[in-house]
Amino acid sequence: MKKVLPPPVSAFNREVERILAAQEGNAQLIQQLRHGVESLTRQLEDTQKMVNVLTKVVQENQAAKLEHVRRQSADASRNAAEGTWANVFHDTIRESKWLTDATFSPGRWAVGYPYLYAMYRVLNEFQPKRILELGLGQSTRMIAQYAAAHEGVEHLVVEHDPAWIQFFSQAFSLPASTQIVQLEREMVPYQEAQQVRVFQGFQQALAGKQFDFISIDAPLGGDMKEYARIDVLRMMPGCLSRDFVVMVDDAERPGERHTVAAMEKCLQEHDIAYQRGGYNGKKDTVLLCSQSVGFLSSM
User: Fold this and answer.
1) What are 171's strand-pairing partners?
2) I need a labelling partner for 250 at 20 to 30 A (CA). Which of 3, 118, 168, 230 fits?
3) Contact 228, 196 (CB under 8 A)
4) What are the tens digits of pLDDT across the range 219-255?
5) H/E element holding 26?
């Protein structure tokens, strides 16, 4: 009879309530589980972000340490090279017939020992007659002694600072063959560079002149990025004698490096055979010379 007759209404209602209560409980459990999963997901995301930040910090610290070590190593290498060139320079000028005053103070803003060594070899073995020097300083002390000891040499120095010219001239006796031209500085556009520091009136002052040796250590170029010290570049190749040497100091800097590259391009475009040499210490010296005196690029 129980299988045939339906259950009482009260029993049916209790069963429905039980089922609904069970479903509501399951729904609450599912909701709780969902909230738990969402909370865990947020925690995992926060943890991952923290891990990423810590990983980046560690990588940056490692990169900074590696860069610090690299710079220390590079500085040590340059200092060692400078010391080596100092010894080579002093050995080279020993018993020099014309360099009688060797009291140089190289480094910092002045040229270094690699420059002094290469310059001495150029002067002593190439024996130029028409010399242009940009920047009055330690190199002037050497070139002026060479000019005084060799007949027929013309030595022209371009400098912007009248106070420095007066001080230097009082401290060091310049021969009649050395002349100082004082030119102010100005900023001009060149190629893609909006401002490059040059000597004002440089081209007019030196128009029509040719030089077999040019030393470039001015004007100030440390703050120049695209090009630096372009005065001679803008007059090439007309300012060069058939046999020539051009020396550029601070050639490790981007401005001077780009200027040297432009000089080489100019020589190539005019089919002028040349050789390039490098002498590196605390600073880099680049030497461009005509093929006839190519040995000067690898002394």
Assistant:
1) none
2) 168
3) yes
4) 999 999 999 999 999 999 999 999 999 999 999 999 9
5) helix 9-93
The residues near 11 (Cβ < 8 Å, ≥ 6 apart) are: none
> What's the one-letter identity of residue 10?
S
- Which residues of the chain, if any, have pLDDT below 70? 1-7, 9, 12, 16, 20, 24-25, 29, 33, 37, 40, 63-75
CB 238 within 8 A of CB 267: no
| Burial track 139-168 (b if 16+ CB lie within 10 A, e otherwise) | bbbbbbbbbbbeeebebbbbbbeeeebeeb
Q: Taking the alpha carbons of 119, 122, 125, 129 in that order, is the dihedral positive or negative? A: negative
Query: Given this model, what pLDDT does residue 6 score?
Result: 62
Tell how strand 240-248 and strand 211-216 pair up: parallel
E strand or H helix that includes residue 294: none
> Ramachandran region of residue 263, left (φ > 0), alpha (ψ -120 to 50) or beta?
alpha
How many Cα atoms sit within 13 Å of 78 on the Cβ side?
15
Tokens 């040796």, located at residue: 213
Instruction: Specify the pLDDT at position 129.
Output: 98
Query: Burial, 184: exposed, middle or buried (Cβ in 10 Å; 0-12, 13-18, 19+)?
Result: exposed
Amino acid letter, 135: G
Helix (H, G, I), strand (E, B) or coil at 260: helix
Residue in the structure block whose two tokens are 């470039």? 216
Q: Report d(CA 114, CA 141) in Å as an integer.
A: 16
Residue 111 one-letter amino acid: V
Tally of residues, the chain: 299
